[in-house]
Sequence to fold (225 residues):
Amino acid sequence: DGGITQSPKYLFRKEGQNVTLSCEQNLNHDAMYWYRQDPGQGLRLIYYSQIVNDFQKGDIAEGYSVSREKKESFPLTVTSAQKNPTAFYLCASSRDGYNEQFFGPGTRLTVL
Amino acid sequence: AQSVTQLGSHVSVSEGALVLLRCNYSSSVPPYLFWYVQYPNQGLQLLLKYTSAATLVKGINGFEAEFKKSETSFHLTKPSAHMSDAAEYFCAVSVGAGNMLTFGGGTRLMVKP
Fold:
């Protein structure tokens, strides 16, 4: 089955540690996206990538980093510089600039 | 730049009643518009999309939405609510190039038995 997978589902981190969230898709989509979701605030774009080896900052990129070495994969690293990382993180992909985004199941990150 | 406003962060209806979730957008160019649904602790699932074809768009689970350019609206409706419709609903707008979506703040739909 084609789709987007995110792992892990739940992630706990101590303050000061970096953590990497995985996002993989087998839809052969060119574009991939990372969003952060906080209660009552909708979705906010962190980073996006439209082709391999290229990515752009979104609205709230500070404290995050990404890579896009393969078309299928777009991991997100939450660094210790992110002051309030506890949130629900969603990865998405789309075929091109004129189609809907498909979302993964999300990763809930909690900083202890 | 585009923006989306969803009126009402919480909407409560009785089972069998009409569901109406409001979405207004602003965009300087003809937009693409989307409605997504999110169940607790899950990702977003596309309900329907408007991409400049028919103004009345039918989606999954009996939902539909009508694009009204004069009112800059794209409200989501369903004639008869089911308990399983209880979820959070997001309206989103894209102006096409780069497929950057701007999301509204979401509306949590509660269905009373």
User: Anything to note?
Assistant: DSSP finds no helices and twelve strands in chain B. Residues 33 and 71 of chain B are 14 Å apart (CA to CA). Chain B has a mean pLDDT of 91. The interface with chain A takes residues 9, 32, 34, 36, 41-46, 49, 51, 90, 96-101, 103-106 of chain B (CB under 8 Å).
